[in-house]
Amino acid sequence: MPARFRFSERKDTLVVSARFPQLFDEAAVQRLSSGFATTVLVRAIVYEQVVAEPQAVAATSLRVVYDLWDEEYRVRIVDQQGQRDQTFGRRGEALRAVTAIEGMPLAPLTAIEPGKRYLCQLVVMLNPVSDASLAEMRRWLTRRAGTGPLEAGAAVFGSVVSFFVNPQILAADRTLHVQSQPFYRPAVTR
Amino acid sequence: VKLWIAIVISLVAAPAARAQSMGEDEPALADGDPTFGPQISIEAIEIRGNESTATRVIRRALPVATGDVLRAGDARLRRARYQVLALGFFRDVHLSMRKGSSRGRVVLVVTVEERGTIVLNQLYVGSSTATPWWAGADVSDRNALGTGVAFGAALVGAGQPKVPGAEGQWAGQLRAGVNGLAGTRLAAHGAIARIAASEPFRIRGAASDGDPANFAAITYRRSAARAALGYDLTPLAHLSLASRVEWIDVAPLAMAPQRVRPDGTIEAVELGLEPGKSRLASLAVGFDVDTRPDPVLPNRGSRVQVRGELASPALGSDYRYFAALGRYERWFPVAGATNVVSVHLTAGAIFGEAPLFDRFYRGDLNRLLTPRALGLVLTTRPPLDLLDTGADDHVYGNLAGAIEVQYARRWFRRRAPIYGGDWFVAIATTGLGQRAAVADGSSLYRAMPLDVAVDLGLRLDTEIGIFELALGNGLGRVPL
Q: What is the mean pLDDT of residues A64-70?
């Protein structure tokens, strides 16, 4: 079932607003008060409904951290418009702030042709880990204990088939894919 | 802030390229913001839950230390859990924070859940027409006595080959290693090995005839020691220096090794082993850059490996040669992240007279043949030579190359115990030959006759490691 998104035009830009409260389970909510920062990365992809080709991609990061000493939640939102900081006294308020996008710039209006139908898909990641960090961490796990890359006969020509301690390290604590209802820009008649 | 905005704008500017996967330019957004959050000073770090792992081992893995002053949004705090988890000693790691003795000071609490660290790296099991059986295993403890030092042992034994004059074979290896030496980017590894080999070489028959009766065996013992130092130039780039010394004892052959061709011509077989006792000493350097986010089931990124090894009388060696190997691999997502095409290019050359066991071996190149197990050759089966180029006539070489294209399709991804599975099909062209033939005027194509191999199967990423259930893996373990 598509989620309900709100689309509007702001100057020369198409913007979107949506909520995704299901991203946080109880444990993730509790961690908001841990003193460690929580990051939500939102990637929005605009497709033309018929062609299913991406027309535009935009990204926003929402971060929240609890200040143990001032006992307040600090939220930072970074998107195409820049950086905005907010402070909340209650966890619920902070949670609402990082489980919603309000007026997120999606695409220049020139990229959205009037009359055509489009879809917007949000990929929302809780505490994402960059590819570089993932690569670094998993590499340690796959190195055979006590060997280096120069071991005679190792790896270079051989196939890797081995067992090793292999805890799962995901690209994010949780990832949501949320799709909007179809939308279009009305044709302007003069 | 400008950097962040630039990253966001760049994402908008290249929509199609960024749409299907986590953008390569998003690490700053994903990993942390050193300007975000209250400034904190780490007053103390408490480690809990470690019964067998030394506290200092965990402390060394943490990217922060007592006395560090940083913002709560700093990427180091985000990475701390993963870096401890990446030690491979723990089932899970939790971090928490509590107020310290005064404003701005905090105590970092790291709670670990230990797990067994004895792992099976490799199983050697199979049978071939020449060798009735072989069996062995490579086992290691990644965290011996809780010190963070890894110890490993491997042993493989093989029944007496049906090759006339051959003896039973065995090989063993002991090794130790530590990564992140004293909290630095240095790694140190060492190994000793003993190999009792009885290696077949062809003395008669057509190249396509793998009957063990067409072979004789050269029997030798190797005692080897190796030490290596590694250094992480960057998190993804690794440089290594290694030295190796081997004492080799070759049993005398009843007659000079020679081969009688089907047309009656006789040619000498050059095995590259000094008669009696000899010594091999070498220095090697290696470089590895690996940008794959997942080295087990990769769907993008690349890997470059370069390695050079020099053996010289100046090092006390009776053998003089230089071996160079290079490999470039790249993975491309196609039609979404669930379909991956990868290209693997490999090239190697040996200059000088390398001993038989250090030359390129057909079974290590061709997916459908049995690779060497801890240096032991276990089969006399020739490759199929599907292109009829005479590739089956080359078992060892000092020139080698391979081009492999692989297509993998994601089957599933989920949580433990089996994280994911990919079907794959691979087609590879391999070439193995002699540099001397090129020097004598032959074209590279004639000097390195090409062979083709096709492999397919299923690759599983599980909680205890990788399983590759592939046609090639099976064919290399059964007598054909």
A: 93
Q: How many CB pairs under 8 A join A and B?
A: 317
pLDDT tens-digit series, residues B338-397: 889 999 999 999 999 999 999 999 988 888 889 899 999 999 999 888 888 888 888 999
C-alpha–C-alpha distance, residues B243 and B263, integer Å:
45
Bridge partners (DSSP) listed for residue B122: B138
- Band of the pLDDT at A91, cuts 50, 70, 90? very high
CA distance B377 to B156: 12
B-chain residues within 8 Å CB-CB of A140?
A: 86-88, 179
For A22, phi and psi rounded to 5 degrees? -70, -5
Query: If you compute the radius of gyration of chain B from its CA atoms, what whole number of angstroms results?
Result: 26
Residues 6+ apart with CB under 8 A from A28: A38, A126, A173, A174
Residue of chain A whose alpha carbon sits nearest to that of B375 = A153
DSSP-derived secondary structure for B289-344: EE--S-SSS--SEEEEEEEEEEE-GGGT-S--EEEEEEEEEEEEEETTTTEEEEEE
Which residues in chain B have their CB less than 8 angstroms from residue A132's CB?
27, 235-236, 291, 293
- Residue A62's nearest CA partner among A34, A93, A38, A31 is A38
Per DSSP bridges, beta strands A117-126 and A183-184 are antiparallel
Q: Is the dihedral of CA B51, B54, B57, B58 positive or negative?
A: positive
Residue range B98-116, pLDDT digits in tens: 999 999 999 999 999 887 6
Which residues of chain B fall short of a pLDDT of 70?
Answer: 1-31, 116, 183, 295-296, 415-416, 463-465, 480
Angstroms from B14 CA to nearest CA on chain A: 8
Quote the minimal CA–CA distance from B345 to chain A in Å. 10
Q: Tell me the shortest Cα–Cα distance from B146 to chain A, in angstroms.
A: 14
pLDDT of residue B141: 82
B24 CB neighbours in chain A (<8 A) are 131
Tell me the nearest-neighbour CA distance from A177 into chain B, angstroms.
12
Which residues on B lie below 8 Å from A37 (Cβ)? 32-33, 36-37, 72-73, 77-78
Contacts of A158 in chain B (CB under 8 A): 364, 371
If 0-12 CB within 10 Å is exposed, 13-18 middle and 19+ buried, where does residue B3 land?
Answer: exposed
Higher pLDDT, B121 or A147: B121
**What's the predicted TM-score (pTM) here?**
0.71
ipTM exceeds 0.90, yes or no: no
B175 contacts A149? CB cut-off 8 A: no
pLDDT of residue A153: 37
Q: Which of A79, A81, A99 is nearest to A38 (CA)?
A: A99
